[in-house]
Every structure is written in structure tokens, then in C-alpha cells.
Amino acid sequence: MKNRRLTSYNATLLVATAFLCSANRAMAHEPTTKRSSLVDEHERRLVEITTDYQLTVAPLIQKACADCHSGDTQYPWYSMMPGISQWIKHDIEEARKHIEFSNGYPFQSHATPLEDLIAVERVVKDGSMPPLRYRLMHGKARLTEQEKKSIIDWSRRGQQMLRAEMARSAGAE
Ligand code: HEC
After folding, report:
1. What is the phi/psi pair of residue 103, to 5°?
2. Residue 113 CB partners (closer than 8 Å, separation 6+)
3. Whether pLDDT at 74 is above 90
4. How much distance in Å is there from the Cα of 129 to the middle of ligand 1?
5. Is the C-beta atom of 53 inside 6 A of ligand 1?
6. Cβ of 57 below 6 Å from ligand 1
7. Contact 50, 105 (CB under 8 A)
8. Per-residue pLDDT at 77 exceeds 50
9. Which of 4, 88, 161, 168 is exposed most, by the fewest CB atoms within 10 A?
10. pLDDT for res 34
């Protein structure tokens, strides 16, 4: 199941990349407006961050975050215990309201892609996610220091890229 999901992520990525490349080629033959090349640049950045995400971060998010922040919950044995199932259901509802990792980056949320990167860096750095109550019950979902660093580094690279690109497009207006 997980492999299938990853394969379909990769397929989507390939299609997106192929589409952007062909759009780039098509545009090279036509006079483009400044506006459309800026939009193009923004999308290219997002694809770059997404590719980076799939390669280095997606498996870690799958391991430590997906139970609550995706439609792919592996319900633990204790979810059958009276009182607990409601509690877990509530946790998942709340988690998915904030941020949803099911479809890769850019994530689904009420914030911007940049704000999402900042929030992910913050919660991984301060150790507030996954929540302690979950870490206690799911030893395998714990992130090692190296894994935390991979997520934080990816998030910072993404933030840098988006900020640079935003500054460029602001300068061009
Ligand atoms: C046990 C379920 C659970 C797991 C596992 C979990 N989260 Fe959460 N997450 C929540 C809940 C519930 C909220 C909303 C309430 C809150 O902030 O505590 C939330 C909120 C968030 C937010 C928004 C918080 C903010 O202050 O903006 C981010 C970002 C987030 N989680 C990232 C992650 C990441 C990254 C992981 C994995 C490393 C993860 N979560 C794992 C339950 C979970």
C-alpha cells in the first residue's frame, strides 16, 4: 500500500516535471510576458522542493506523522478500547484540520506553502510533533536526531528557495 502510494507520488511528479519542461520549451518560442515567466518560475521552485521532499522527507513523514495527518491511519490495537477510539478520532480530525500530508508537498492546509514549511520546522525542532502521548505508544514512529535534521534541512532549503523567489518577483513588479 505504502509503495503504491509512493509510486503514484512519483508518477505525479514525473508528469508535473514533464509538463513544466514542455511548457518551458513552448514558451521559449513565443514572446512571454514577465508575469507568466514569474508564475512559471514559482512552479518550478515548488516542483524542486517537491522532488527533494519525495526523496528525503516523505518516508519520515509517513513513519512519524501520517497516522494523524493523512487519510492513511494505521489504527493501533488500543484504539479498540472503550473511550480511546473517540479520543483518537478527535486527534486525527484536529490534526488533519491543521495540516494534511497525504498528497505530498505542497501540503494541504489553511496556510501558505512557506508558512507550512516554517510550522513543520518548528514542531520537529521543538519536539512537539509527534505528540508525546503518541511517541510513548509508538516507539517505531520516533524520529532519530538524524531524521529530524533531514526534515529541518529540507524545510530550510524550501524556505530559502521560496523567499528568494518571492523577493525576485517583488523586485520585478
Ligand atoms: C497523535 C497524532 C499526531 C501525530 C502522530 C502528529 N501530529 Fe501534528 N498535530 C496533531 C494535532 C492533534 C494537531 C492540532 C493541535 C495541536 O497543535 O496540538 C497537530 C498540529 C500540527 C501542526 C500545526 C501546529 C501549529 O502550531 O501550527 C503541524 C505543523 C504538525 N502537527 C506537524 C506534524 C508533524 C511534522 C508530525 C510528524 C513529525 C506530526 N505533526 C505528527 C496530531 C499529531
Report:
1. -105, 25
2. 46, 49, 105, 106, 107, 158, 162
3. no
4. 5
5. no
6. no
7. yes
8. yes
9. 4
10. 65
CA of 61 to the centre of ligand 1 (A): 11
Shortest-distance atom of ligand 1 to CA 60 = 38
Does residue 69 have its Cβ closer than 6 Å to ligand 1? yes
Task: Name the average pLDDT for the chain.
Answer: 82
Q: Is the CB of 116 under 6 A from ligand 1?
A: no
What does the alpha-carbon distance between residue 101 and residue 6 come to, in Å, rounded to a whole number? 13
What is the number of domains present in the chain?
1
Owning domain of residue 88 = 2-172
> Which has the minimum average pLDDT: 84-88, 104-108, 152-156?
84-88
Rg (CA), the chain: 19
Q: Is the CB of 119 under 6 A from ligand 1?
A: yes
Q: pLDDT by residue (tens digit) across 27-68?
A: 445 455 666 777 787 788 888 899 999 999 999 999 999 999
State the first-to-last Cα distance of the chain, in angstroms, to the nearest integer. Answer: 46
Atom 10, ligand 1: residue with shortest CA distance? 95
